[in-house]
Write a structure and sequence with these properties.
globular, about 130 residues, single chain, mainly alpha
């Protein structure tokens, strides 16, 4: 194996170990500042009086929420590394893949279930005699 590839793999492994080791504390900190709820409120407001924000494939909304909660740039980098590690590569994916529950995820699956029901024919299945 090439030494450069081996070094990159070791660096990646140690980075993943670091991210994995800080993940529980990062998640606790995000829970304490109601990050997931605030992000959910922006992307899937509980009432219709609030305008819906759109995910642009970045952490733009998350950064605004977390900066307002007092996190600095270094902490944001760690938070986004943990979120990415857990499958959240942008604002909406955080709610789909990282948050235990969210309106955005629930509404998505409710809609998918409705589509499935609408596409499923309602004719009785024929049974062989």
């Amino acid at each position: 194996m090439d030494a450069g590839v081996m070094f990159a793999r070791m660096e990646s492994d140690s980075e993943n170990e670091l991210i994995s080791s800080i993940a529980p504390d990062v998640m606790t900190s995000l829970g304490r500042c109601s990050y997931f709820e605030k992000l959910d409120e922006l992307l899937s407001p509980e009432d219709n009086s609030t305008s819906v924000e759109k995910c642009d494939g970045s952490f733009r909304l998350s950064e605004t929420i977390l900066t307002a909660a007092g996190f600095d740039r270094v902490e944001l980098d760690d938070i986004f590394a943990v979120l990415h590690f857990k499958g959240g590569c942008c604002d909406c994916e955080v709610l789909y893949n990282v948050a235990e529950k969210s309106r955005l995820k629930a509404n998505y699956w409710r809609g998918r279930a409705g589509e499935q029901v609408a596409r499923t024919p309602h004719t009785p299945h024929s049974r062989p005699n």
